[in-house]
Amino acid sequence: MKNILLIDDDDIIQKIISKVLERNGFNVVSGGDGKEGVDKLNMMKYDLVITDIMMPYLNGFEFIQELRRHPNGKDARIIIFSSITNEDAIRDSKNMGVDLYLSKPIVINEFIDTVKTLLG
């Protein structure tokens, strides 16, 4: 079973995405901000990390920097989903090694297909 870390400060998005991923056979651990995401890195090794950008304490970019330093996240695939769609944010994410940048709102069936493709 593939492990996914989901970080988003919107509880509703967190619950919906978690349930859909779990129904598709993934183990999902979630957190509400980047600081909590860093804490969750100590739990297990993750195959995929899904994060928002605009969050309290540590934003998504700061969280990704921490993720890449941690043994349980340094090799994880990364998806950003955010309402920020400017070219600078997208370029910065690519420079950080993000696999995919999705704009909110997402189409859930396409999202699941993308996750399955990324994780093989």
TrEMBL record:
<feature type="domain" description="Response regulatory">
    <location>
        <begin position="3"/>
        <end position="119"/>
    </location>
</feature>
<feature type="modified residue" description="4-aspartylphosphate">
    <location>
        <position position="52"/>
    </location>
</feature>
<dbReference type="InterPro" id="IPR001789">
    <property type="entry name" value="Sig_transdc_resp-reg_receiver"/>
</dbReference>
<protein>
    <submittedName>
        <fullName>Response regulator</fullName>
    </submittedName>
</protein>
<dbReference type="Pfam" id="PF00072">
    <property type="entry name" value="Response_reg"/>
</dbReference>
<keyword id="KW-0597">Phosphoprotein</keyword>
<dbReference type="InterPro" id="IPR050595">
    <property type="entry name" value="Bact_response_regulator"/>
</dbReference>
<dbReference type="InterPro" id="IPR011006">
    <property type="entry name" value="CheY-like_superfamily"/>
</dbReference>
